[in-house]
């Protein structure tokens, strides 16, 4: 697999030139969604999808991804599981392969640039834990960049459960022996291309170019080693919300852009030239704004993919026999996952580690005879009231004053405070 160089610095990833005030407003909206996740997914899923298409705010991306993929619920339902797997030595066969792959993952990123650094150590822990979690599947090299992208946004335990969800729910069978699932999806992609871009489809068919030759790295790595970094994050925002159809749409957009007209095909007269063309994608086609717009407007739906899946599987079995990999059916995004496995309310709680107590109520200033008080008899009434209070204090046990139940308005309102609140929970927003 070729290495794509990504910038070390994290740039604007929630759309080009998003004003700071707009970003704060988006953060406040996302915080509200995360605090009421089950309700939003049940009643306002279209709004969640729209906000994912606009881009998750960078400060909340790690937490949002974990909620979208269902990793947060898995972690809560399996407390201590990652620590148990992490403490085990692992299968030497997989440990050796994983160790040899660590330095290949985003070698120009500050988190993974140092051999044996904290980034590579956590990547090893996550991948080793997965081989123990799924010993029948083991380790596949394409899992490493998936885990690395997750680790850039969340701690190792969260990244592990994110990887589990992607491998089991979004891309089941992709990393199993024989790679049957990815080959099947290659045929689905090729069939969908006929509807999206007949010119590109005819060209690939003419040169007998198998989909496995150009789409394997795209799909297995979820475009993390193909696109510019800003585009990777926007694609993942939509992918974890809407499922594998986003990966199909990105692939179809790139194929149409590269091979969708007779003029473009003049540079690719044969199989080798076409392969070289698809390896050197022009930056204009991968630019964040252009790519997201094309993906959102793509007509390819979940129903189209499932219909083609049935047809291609039937053809596979007729020509090659039964599939050896019996992977579970994939789930198309966050709503399908939360519907199939309804979480408990406590599984979605934020569990903050920093609690801000409300300040004590200020003492009332002494009265100087307010409206309605008799000025002449005020002192006498006060003395009687003081004597009465002293008698009551002697009779009743002392009770400490209770803290006010509602937080002050300054903590309850304001988008700036809402964005700072994102740093006060266990789900750290950025692991860098």
Oligomeric status: single chain
Q: Helical amount among residues, as a percent range?
A: 55-70%
Task: Give the termini separation.
Answer: 26 Å
How many β-strands, per DSSP? 0
Structural class: mainly alpha
Low-confidence stretches: 1-15, 369-379, 381-385, 392-432
Q: What is the H-and-E element order?
A: HHHHHHHHHHHHHHHHHHHHHHHH
Q: How many helix segments?
A: 24
Biased composition (Basic residues): 379-388
Pfam families: RabGAP-TBC
Biased composition (Pro residues): 398-407
Biased composition (Gly residues): 369-378
Task: Explain what this protein looks like in three dimensions.
With 432 residues, the chain is mostly helical. Helices cover 58% and strands 0% of the residues. The protein has 24 helices and no strands. The chain has helices at residues 20-35, 37-43, 45-54, 61-69, 71-77, 81-87, 92-101, 118-133, 143-151, 156-170, 180-196, 198-206, 212-220, 229-242, 245-259, 262-265, 271-279, 283-286, 288-297, 302-320, 334-340, 378-395, 409-412, 415-421. It starts with 19 loop residues before the first helix and ends in an 11-residue tail after the last helix.
Tell me briefly what this model is.
The protein is mainly alpha-helical.
Write the layout of secondary structure elements.
Elements: H1 20-35, H2 37-43, H3 45-54, H4 61-69, H5 71-77, H6 81-87, H7 92-101, H8 118-133, H9 143-151, H10 156-170, H11 180-196, H12 198-206, H13 212-220, H14 229-242, H15 245-259, H16 262-265, H17 271-279, H18 283-286, H19 288-297, H20 302-320, H21 334-340, H22 378-395, H23 409-412, H24 415-421
Helix pairs in contact: 1-24, 2-3, 3-14, 4-14, 5-10, 7-8, 8-9, 8-10, 9-10, 11-12, 11-13, 11-15, 11-20, 12-15, 14-15, 14-19, 15-19
């Amino acid at each position: 697999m070729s290495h794509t160089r990504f910038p070390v610095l994290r740039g604007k990833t929630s759309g080009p030139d998003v004003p700071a005030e707009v970003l704060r407003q988006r953060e406040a909206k996302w915080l509200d969604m995360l605090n009421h996740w089950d309700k939003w997914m049940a009643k306002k899923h279209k709004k969640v999808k729209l906000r994912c298409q606009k881009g998750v705010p960078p400060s909340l991306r790690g937490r949002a991804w974990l909620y979208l993929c269902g990793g947060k619920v898995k972690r809560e339902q399996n407390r201590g599981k990652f620590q148990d797997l992490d403490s085990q030595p692992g299968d030497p066969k997989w440990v050796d392969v994983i160790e040899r792959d660590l330095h290949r993952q985003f070698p120009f990123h500050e988190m993974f640039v140092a051999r044996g650094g904290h980034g590579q150590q956590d990547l090893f822990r996550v991948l080793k834990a997965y081989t123990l979690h799924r010993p029948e599947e083991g380790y596949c090299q394409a899992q490493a960049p998936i885990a690395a992208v997750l680790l850039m946004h969340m701690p190792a335990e969260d990244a592990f459960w994110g990887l589990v969800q992607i491998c089991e729910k979004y891309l089941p069978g992709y990393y199993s022996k024989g790679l049957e699932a990815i080959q099947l999806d290659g045929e689905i992609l090729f069939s969908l291309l006929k509807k999206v871009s007949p010119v590109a489809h005819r060209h690939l068919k003419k040169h007998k170019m198998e989909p496995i030759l150009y789409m394997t790295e795209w799909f297995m790595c979820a475009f993390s080693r193909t696109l510019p970094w800003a585009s990777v994050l926007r694609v993942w925002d939509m992918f974890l919300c809407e499922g594998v159809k986003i990966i199909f749409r990105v692939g179809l957009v790139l194929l149409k852009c590269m091979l969708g007209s007779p003029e473009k095909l003049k540079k690719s007269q044969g199989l080798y030239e076409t392969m070289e063309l698809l390896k050197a994608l022009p930056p204009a086609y991968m630019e964040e704004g252009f790519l997201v717009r094309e993906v959102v407007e793509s007509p390819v739906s979940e129903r189209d993919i499932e219909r083609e899946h049935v047809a291609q599987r039937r053809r596979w079995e007729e020509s090659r026999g039964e599939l050896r990999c019996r992977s579970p059916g994939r789930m198309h995004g966050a709503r399908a996952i939360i519907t199939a496995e309804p979480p408990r309310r406590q599984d979605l709680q934020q569990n903050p580690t920093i609690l801000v107590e409300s300040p004590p109520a200020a003492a009332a200033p002494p009265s100087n005879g307010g409206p309605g008080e008799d000025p002449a008899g005020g002192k006498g009434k006060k003395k009687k009231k003081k004597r009465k209070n002293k008698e009551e204090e002697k009779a009743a046990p002392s009770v400490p004053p209770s803290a006010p139940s509602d937080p002050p308005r300054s903590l309850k309102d304001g988008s700036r405070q809402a964005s700072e609140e994102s740093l006060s929970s266990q789900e750290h927003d950025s692991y860098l």
